[in-house]
Amino acid sequence: MAGVSATAPGMGAGAPGVRAIAPAIEVEGLGHVYPEGTRALAGVDLRIAPGEAVAIIGQNGSGKSTLVRHLNGLLRPTEGVVRVDGRATTGIRVARLAALVGLAFQDPDRQIFAGRVRAEVAFGPRNLGVRGAALDAAVADALAAVGLGDAADANPYDLGYSRRKLLAIASVLAMRTPIVVLDEPTTGQDLRGMARVRAIVRGLVAEGRTVLAVSHDMRFVAESFGRVVVMREGRIALDGTPAEVFAEAAWPLLASTYLEPPLAARVGVAGVAPPGDPSRGRSRALGRPVR
Amino acid sequence: MAGGYLVPLALVGAVLASAAAGRVLGRLLRVSALLTLPIAVSVILVSVLTRPGETVLLVVGPFDVTLEGVDFAGQTLVRLVAISTAIGLFTLTTDPRAFVLDLERRGLSPRFAFVAAATIEAVPAMVARAGVIAAAQRSRGLDTEGSLRARLRGVLPIVGPVLLSSLTEVEERSLALEVRGFGRPGRRRLLWWPPDRPLERLARWLLVVALAALVAVRILGAWPPIP
Amino acid sequence: MLELRGATYRYAGYARPVLHDVDLALRDGEIVGLVGGNESGKSTICLVASGLAPLSIGGELRGEVLIDGEATAGLAVHDLAQRVVIGFQNPATQRSGAAATVFEEVALGPMNLGLPVAETLARARRALATLRIEHLADRDPVRLSGGQGQLVAIASLLAMGPRHFILDEPTAQLDPEGSNLVVAALRDLAATGAALLVVEHKTDLLDGLCDRVAVVDGGRVVLDGPAAATLEDPRLAGWGVEPPARVRLAAALAARGLADLSELGWPA
After folding, report:
1. Which residues of chain A have a Cβ shorter than 8 Å from any chain C Cβ?
2. Which end of chain C has the smaller Cβ count within 10 Å, N or C?
3. ipTM value of the model?
């Protein structure tokens, strides 16, 4: 199928002409070995154009978390180079890169420290030097985007886990970074929370921001992202649209990473569409998720 | 004066020899140096510069550096080293879990034994947690690589969540422990405790006797105190 | 069998009860799923069913909790734990922190009960064997994956000797690999004749696993029946519960007038 690269560096399945624009994120030959000797990344090449929505999937140990931590400088390459907005990250402090790349972590309880929701959200933009009316606006917009506008004066620990996770995301959104990275945004979310996370991703894409998410929720990935990067053993194993990555041809590879394509994709291949329907037999029609 | 050095130095020698036999000499020296250095520096400075004495060696501003002062500093230093190396040797050669099990076997309450054992794991767990928290805060622009003032401002956003998240976990942890019977009063039949060899028992008794003897000798004034 | 009869529970320091007149039964060898939106009372039902509410956390309980016909009120926690145990979603908080190996961790429960050494060892071995994790016996509990950690937590509970297991979102923090491990373990557990109550958001997981599913909303049990039928009930979304993928897919196909899944021989 066109666009699926099984082992080669992904050039992105974005619109034609994407090469003319400088990539938002460019990773070349990235390798990373942890201090105790484990090799987490073994030669990753990736180009993400501005405004793309990319999901990074793979089992634990595949390197997906290690990869995204290179984007804001928390981890530094052992080999290769990482470029954000055209500039190499070497030598730029994490606190400076935070103005370009907002990284929202998985566990909200490993970052919340303020007594009020408002103050927690203001922490990020304040660190970037935003003050006064601009700060208030950034905080208000972020809270509205995650649906916590009514809880601005609440104590974060009075919110349930689901809403605390949304608070953590809000605190990164308030920094208004051109690139937003979400680490497992849907784990622990209930029905309403999941809908909210999908809305957040849609909103960011509509604003033209580059969105990345690390997730093992295949339905979320298939529904909300135009491009899926599958990682395995420190390398990129597949890179394409959800329809391509979850197509039958890719199942053996996905199985080796303990991932199951969404049910819709599996059923789609059985050719459920009625006779005469041009999408019969091809996975594209039901490669799209079902609500 | 030389007499004041003999015993502490002999003790240090014995400890270091034991450390070498236990293959922890290098670590012991590092740990002792780290522990003793701050105290040593202040004690030496104070004694050397302010201790009254007769034989003046040199004059530093308003301070007279006397031989007696240097001697006092020296004797205090070797005693500090003796204490820190002895404690260091104990911690480096004793498996904390085995130690706690042995205490329980000899009558320590199981709940107390549990707290001691769990505390050992708690420290690396907290350090790991602080690492995750620091990463999250740095990703929100907290600067941990900049000026000292910037780093000080970073203390609350890192320490705060460490404490908060530990506290919020306490209830669930204690419920989980209760379900596993940790609240039950009474003794337990331990699966294992460290063996007590005759030689070790003898060594322990000798140490107790030596300790009693030394204290008695000091009290009875048979040994000259530090001038 | 474990039964809740007319359980109404109010947390200590709160004015209003969180559970209202809850009836729920758990029979030997049965796996019952419990679903509901956040704050619907699912976790409270777990605490009440396991006896920890009000025994450990206080509060006021009206109604009864019966195990094999006997009321559990008045039992000490460690006696209660030999009849019913509760597991939580975070493997890290369920680690005692006092064991150097998985075997020791699992043996801690029986040891705390003051059992003779031979009995403690036998129980630990049996628990590891039932959950098929003998190969983890010498591993450091701290260095396990999330899924393995949950299995060790469940084995530690099994070693206490209960016949009833209450599991509050056991896979919430796990990746797909870990979730699969836990689901397989729950099947193994039920096969020994134990009764399981499993709270989960992931209805896909419960779909293939449970015999019955109960739905909780606003502190009341609003639906309780065979798993397949309950998970196909159209009111689930209104109660904050996402139906399993196959139910959503069937609904979407029907809405587009496309073929019915059963014509494909798709398993129910």
Report:
1. 59-60, 160-162, 187-188, 190-194, 216, 219, 258-260, 262-264, 267, 270, 272-274, 290-291
2. C
3. 0.89
